[in-house]
Amino acid sequence: MSKYGIVVGSIRKNSYSKGVADALVAGLPEDSEVTYLNISDLPLYNQDLDENSPEAYTNFRAQVANQDAFIFVTPEHNRSIPAALKNALDIASRPWGQNVWAGKPALVASQSIGGTAGVLAHHVLRQSLVFLDMPTLQQPELYIGNTSTLADENGQITNDDTEAFLASAAQQFVTFAQKF
């Protein structure tokens, strides 16, 4: 059994990113332990708090440390990743030298309601994960465009081909993550 942490970059209710994450989780083995990490209420990272971190930082770092691998799903905000996602990456990578993301395999998916499929956010996130020392599945690349036509009003993916593609990608990620 493996522990998979799911980090959804969108904190919007009924987000398409959450729907994509749910479709990926559906492709994981039944005995997987899956934890959705809540990033919506994390205080902004402040280096002044490294010596005496707030409980929210400490709890989040412990949650990250407890996972074996991560699935990240992000929308694109202004040609980058959402602030809440960047904040979560920063909190769990600090204080300097105490990066709890390090060595944990990652899968990155991006989505948008437009045809660009969050491609720039995808690459910005990958850049950060490289620096955080997270081996990242290279193929397949998961750029999910036009999500509003692939999902229902709750953000859940309803398109059969997309569901099958995401489940297959999750299965490939399982094989990749087991190498670490």
TrEMBL record:
A molecular function (GO) term: oxidoreductase activity
Q: Which residues form the NADPH-dependent FMN reductase-like domain?
A: 5-147
* Cited PANTHER family: CHROMATE REDUCTASE, NAD(P)H-DEPENDENT FMN REDUCTASE LOT6
Tell me the protein's name. Oxidoreductase (Putative)
What's the short name of a Pfam family annotated to this entry?
Answer: FMN_red
Q: Which GO terms describe its cellular component?
A: cytosol
Organism per entry: Leuconostoc kimchii (strain IMSNU 11154 / KCTC 2386 / IH25)
State the source organism's domain of life: Bacteria
